[in-house]
Structure formats: structure tokens, C-alpha cells
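Researcher: Let's do a round of design. I'm pasting the C-alpha cells now; please hold your answer until I've finished.
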């Protein structure tokens, strides 16, 4: 008969062996796009440990003091297009807060909407999202589910007295070698369909629709060649087109209501 002490020793050794054994390897199904497959594989730890990436702006949010009564704080909320936008250069002297995270989808943004938008007490939020959903960065998703995520953000904003400004999804092009996969994974027809829904949703719900698409698309229905080096992310010239459009939308939505 095995003694209690011997049993505990065997149990301890077995537990240590299991702890040291390599875990199962996660293999994601191929999307058909090598660059996207590599990106998705690199994000497994993020998707498992901090899906919404709440840690990204946690400290910055904690350090941000509440807005003054007369401060027109605006949060720019989105993916890499927002993340790389130097708001201080584009809007000097404005109380605009950048809360973009490269690669994110609307599903991830919805997870952090309270922390990175509502809790910052802005008067308005400019949302630019959806292109990474179409590409499938965090998995396949239908247009209907993307629309549901965006509608949920709008409902949360309204409940907290925050004016919602929905930006159209930008066009994409395939004019350079680095643009080929970005374009292939973002079918223009899906971009057009989501933008049509956004425009209609905004009209029905008294929300602002910020139309970047119309100002940045060429006669072929693609992003103008000189506005992005990689066919997706605006360069300096691209942001120069976007700045006055964003300024106008914000000014119109922060005007006092007419009696």
C-alpha cells in the first residue's frame, strides 16, 4: 500500500511535469492573405489576454483630468488610421484626444468604448472604424454584425450625452505593391455597403455622418493614389484632406441648439 507521503510526492512530480510540458500549438485557419495570416498569428496573445487592449490607454486615461466646463473635448476613436493621426499638428490648440489602436475591429472597440470614450467625458466622439472588420483582422464578421457594433457605440454615446460623429470607411487602392493585399482583403462593394448603411443610420438617428470617402475616392472608385503610400493609411496629403472635413463636422455638432 502506498503511503500518504509517497502519494503526495508522486502527485507533486506529476504536476510539475504537466506544468513544464509544452501547451497545444494554436493554428489559425488561413485567410488566403499571407500578410493578414502573419498579423493574426502575432495577435493571439492580445486576443486571449486583453481582447479590447484596455491596457493601451489605461495610464493615459487615469492621468487625464476631467474637462473644464467650457472645454470642447473630442475623442477621436478608431484603428490605425486614427492611431497614426497627429492630432496636435492637425488641430493645434484643440482639446482633442486620440484613442486609436492599430489593427482593431469594431468588436474590440466596443469592449473599450466605456473606458476610452465615455469615462473621458467628451462632448463628441469621432468614430472611424470598420475597414479591419472587412479584412477579418479578428475573425470573419458579417456587415450586419459590424453595423450592430457601431449602433451599440452610438446608443452608449447617446445615453451619456456624447455627440456621435460617424466617419465613412475610407476607400482603398491597389496602385502600389504594398497596397495589393490591403485592397484584396477589403472588397470595395463591402465598403460601399457599410457606408450606405452608416449614412442612412445617421440620418434616421440624428447623428453626424462625416464623409471622407467622397473627398478621397478617384474616378475608378479607389483611394486617390497620392493620398496613401500603401493604399490604405492616409499620408500627409491624405490627412490634409480629412482635417477640414473633421473640423466642420465637429463645429456643427458642438454648436448650441437653436431655440
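Researcher: That's everything. Go ahead.
Model: Designed sequence:
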Amino acid at each position: 500500500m502506498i503511503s500518504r507521503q509517497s502519494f503526495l510526492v508522486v502527485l507533486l512530480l506529476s504536476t510539475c511535469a504537466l506544468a513544464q510540458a509544452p501547451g497545444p500549438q494554436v493554428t489559425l485557419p488561413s485567410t488566403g492573405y499571407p500578410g493578414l495570416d502573419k498579423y493574426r498569428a502575432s495577435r493571439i496573445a492580445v486576443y486571449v489576454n486583453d481582447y479590447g487592449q484596455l491596457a493601451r490607454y489605461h495610464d493615459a486615461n487615469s492621468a487625464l483630468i476631467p474637462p473644464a466646463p467650457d472645454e470642447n473635448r473630442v475623442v477621436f476613436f478608431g484603428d490605425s488610421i486614427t492611431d497614426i493621426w497627429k492630432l496636435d499638428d492637425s488641430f493645434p490648440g484643440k482639446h482633442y484626444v486620440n484613442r486609436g489602436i492599430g489593427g482593431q475591429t469594431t468588436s474590440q472597440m466596443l469592449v473599450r468604448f466605456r473606458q476610452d470614450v465615455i469615462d473621458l467625458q467628451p462632448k463628441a466622439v469621432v468614430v472611424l472604424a470598420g475597414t479591419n472588420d472587412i479584412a477579418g483582422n479578428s475573425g470573419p464578421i458579417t456587415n450586419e454584425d459590424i453595423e450592430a457594433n457601431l449602433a451599440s457605440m452610438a446608443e452608449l454615446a447617446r445615453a451619456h450625452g456624447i455627440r456621435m460623429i460617424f466617419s465613412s470607411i475610407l476607400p482603398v487602392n491597389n496602385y502600389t505593391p504594398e497596397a495589393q493585399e490591403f485592397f484584396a482583403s477589403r472588397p470595395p462593394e463591402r465598403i460601399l455597403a457599410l457606408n450606405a448603411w452608416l449614412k442612412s443610420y445617421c440620418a434616421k438617428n440624428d447623428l453626424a455622418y462625416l464623409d471622407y470617402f467622397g473627398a478621397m475616392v478617384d474616378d475608378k472608385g479607389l483611394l486617390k493614389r497620392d493620398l496613401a503610400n500603401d493604399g490604405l493609411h492616409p499620408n500627409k496629403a491624405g490627412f490634409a484632406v480629412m482635417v477640414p472635413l473633421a473640423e466642420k463636422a465637429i463645429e456643427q455638432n458642438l454648436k448650441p441648439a437653436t431655440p
